Amino acid sequence: TLTRRLIRLRREHPVLHRGDFETVGPTPPGTYAFRRISADGHLTIALNLTPDPQSIPGVGPGRVLVGTHPDRDAARVDDTLELRSNEAVVVESGRGPTAAPDR
Fold first, then answer.
1. How far apart, in whole angstroms, are the C-alpha atoms of residue 52 and residue 63?
2. Is the pTM of this model over 0.85?
3. Of 9, 24, 56, 77, which residue is most buried, by most CB within 10 angstroms?
4. How far lies 45's CA from each of 5, 83, 92, in Å?
5. What are the Cα distances from residue 62, in Å, to 37, 45, 57, 75?
6. How far is CA 52 from its chain centroid?
């Protein structure tokens, strides 16, 4: 199911096809975050590859589009993202023209 959702996300967001790449960080050891940026919007991908919860600054503001834990979908993200162990999310930023509206 996650794979299908990620494939659909790639089809729906042109920034994943032709956006520029920018790292977000520094991030804590065992975590990684990067941003895809274009005129079509901003998407940030954040990964926690550790068995412990981690905080990653500079991810938001935005809204989770897809994550490894479906209960995070549509969750609001402030500047710092709290990730659970072994969690990954894709966040649509409020900075781009394709940003998700507040719900």
1. 23
2. no
3. 56
4. 14, 12, 9
5. 14, 12, 13, 9
6. 19
Apex 86 CA angle, 82 and 88, nearest 5 = 65
Q: Residue 94: its pLDDT value, please? A: 57
CA-wise closest residue to 49 among 85, 82, 95: 85
Q: What is the pLDDT of residues 36-87, one digit of tens each?
A: 998 878 999 999 999 999 999 999 899 999 999 999 989 999 999 999 999 9
Question: CA 93, CA 63: separation in Å to the nearest integer?
Answer: 7
DSSP structure class, residue 68: S
**d(C-alpha 99, C-alpha 93), whole Å:** 6
For residue 71, give the nearest of 86, 98, 89, 57 by alpha carbon: 89
Structure tokens of 56? Answer: 């990653």
* Helix (H/G/I), strand (E/B), else coil: 97: coil
Look-up: residue for tokens 């941003």? 35
